[in-house]
Amino acid sequence: QTVFIPREIDANEPRVAASPDTVKRLVSLGLDVIVEAGAGTLSRIPDADFAKAGASIGKAADAGKADVVLKVRRPTEAELKAYKNGAAVIAIMDPYGNEPAVAALAKAGVTAFAMEFMPRITRAQVMDVLSSQANLAGYQAVIDGAAEYDRALPMMMTAAGTVPAAKIFIMGVGVAGLQAIATARRLGAVVTATDVRPAAKEQVASLGAKFIAVEDEEFKQAETAGGYAKEMSKEYQAKQAALTAEHIAKQDIVITTALIPGRPAPKLVSAAMLASMKPGSVIVDLAVERGGNVEGAVAGKVVTTANDVKIVGHLNMAGRVAASASLLYAKNLVAFLETMIDKDAKAIAINRDDELVKATMLTDAGKVVHPNFANSAA
Ligand code: NAD
Fold it and tell me: Residue ranges of the Alanine dehydrogenase/pyridine nucleotide transhydrogenase NAD(H)-binding domain (predicted)?
C-alpha cells in the first residue's frame, strides 16, 4: 500500500508532513512512500534525502495512487479531486468554522483524521501536534519579539555603563507560554506570566518566572477536566483587565498565547493598555489566527500604534521554524499512522473502535462522523 506526501499548496505553509526518518519508518513497515518533488524544500529537506530514505519522488497527481495521504493542512477541494475514494487523509484539519470544507472531505469519500483532536492522554503524547508545534511557536514568539525590540534583553554591566534587563510578560501559559518563559529567561529577561488556570502557577515558578493573576474563587475552578481553560465571567475579565493594565505599562515585551478550545481567543490587551506602554515596546500575539488577544493585532502583519508600540501578528509561528517544526510534526503523524497498520499484513487496518481513531476521525465512507460536526451536511 502507498503513502503519499504532497508539497503543501498554501502560500503560508512551509512545513512538510514527512522527514527522512519517518519515510524510513514507513518503508520498514512495508509501505511504498511517494513524496512530491519539492515537498521538503522550505523545510530544508532536499528530495535526495527523501529518496535516500526509501521514498520515490513523484508529482501532485500521484495522490491518486495513495491509500494514505499525510499532510500539514486540510486538502482543498482541488486536491481532493485527485484522491482515491476511501483513502485516509491525516492532517491539521482546522474544522471549526470551516464546516463546508469538512462536508467536502466527506463528499470526496476520504477518511479524514484531524490531528488537533488527538486526546491528551499518555499513549498519545507522541502524536500531540498541538504540543509539538505550540512549543516551537512559543520559542519563536520570543525570538520575533526580540528582533522587533531595539534594546538588548539581558542585563549587561560594562565599563561604559549598565544596560537593564528587559521585562517580558507572558499571557497564557499552556505549552507555548511555558516555552516562551523558558526562552525569555535564557535570553536574560526578567519574566512574569499570567493564566486563569491555577495549575499554571507552579509551572511558572518552576521556570523561574513570577506568576501574576487574579486568584479568586472562579480562578480555582477555571480548568476543565481536559486541562483547558474555561471562558471566564465578565466580572473575572474586569478584575483581570485591571491587574493587566497596571502591570503591562511597565513591560518591554508582551507575548500573548491565550486560547479557549472552540471559542474565539479572549481579548486581554485593550487599546488603552497599549496606549499606556512605553514607545519601542513590542507585543507578539500568538492567538492572532483565532481572533487575537490584542486589540488592533492584524493577522500576518506587524502594526505600529500611535505611541510607537509594535504589535506582531505573524501567521503560522511554528512555520517560521519550519525545519524544526516539520521533523516533530512528521514524527507525530507516523506515530499515529503506526497504530493503524496491521504489521503482519503490512496494510492499513483502521480500528474504528480505537479511542484515538474515534476522537480524531472527521469523515468516513461519505459521511461526517465526528460528534462535534454531526450537523455538517455531507
Ligand atoms: P491552549 O493553547 O488551549 O491555551 C493557552 C493558554 O491560555 C492556556 O494555558 C489557557 O489556560 C490560557 N488562557 C485561556 N484563557 C485565558 C485568559 N482569559 N487569561 C489568561 N490565560 C488564558 O493551551 P495548551 O497549550 O493546549 O495547554 C492546555 C492544557 O493542556 C495545559 O494544562 C497543558 O499543560 C495541558 N497539556 C497536556 C498534555 C498531555 O497531557 N499530553 C499535553 C499538552 C498540554
Answer: 146-313
Instruction: Tell me if residue 120 is catalytic.
Output: yes
**Does 128 qualify as catalytic in the annotation?**
yes
| Atom number of ligand 1 nearest to Cα 197 | 11
* Catalytic residue status for 131: yes
- Active-site pick, 120, 186, 263, 352: 120
Can you tell me the distance from the alpha carbon of 378 to that of 104, in angstroms, rounded to the nearest whole number? 7
Tell me if 286 CB under 6 Å of ligand 1. no
The half-sphere exposure of 12 on its side-chain side, counting CA atoms within 13 A, is: 10
Cell of 368: 461526517
In order, the DSSP letters of 8-77 are P-STT----S--HHHHHHHHHTT-EEEEETTTTGGGT--HHHHHHTTPEEE-GGGGGG-SEEEEEEPPPH
Q: What is the pLDDT along the chain (378 residues), one digit of tens a residue?
A: 999 999 999 999 999 999 999 999 999 999 999 999 999 999 999 999 999 999 999 999 999 999 999 999 999 999 999 999 999 999 999 998 899 999 999 999 999 999 999 999 999 999 999 999 999 999 999 999 999 999 999 999 999 999 999 999 999 999 999 999 999 999 999 999 999 999 999 999 999 999 999 999 999 999 988 888 999 999 999 999 999 999 999 999 999 999 998 789 999 999 999 999 999 999 999 999 999 999 999 999 999 999 999 999 999 999 999 999 999 999 999 999 999 999 899 899 999 999 999 999 999 999 999 999 876 655
Cα separations (Å) of 275 from 170, 250, 307? 19, 12, 6
Query: Atom 34, ligand 1: which residue's CA is nearest?
Result: 174
SS3 for 136? helix
Spacing, Cα 4 to ligand 1 middle (Å)? 33
Nearest to 6 by CA among 22, 20, 17: 17
Ligand 1 pocket check for 197: Cβ under 6 Å = yes
Phi-psi region of 86 (alpha: psi -120 to 50; beta: other; left: phi over 0): left
Q: Is 139 a catalytic residue?
A: no
Q: What residue's CA is closest to ligand 1, atom 15?
A: 258
Does the annotation mark 140 as catalytic? no
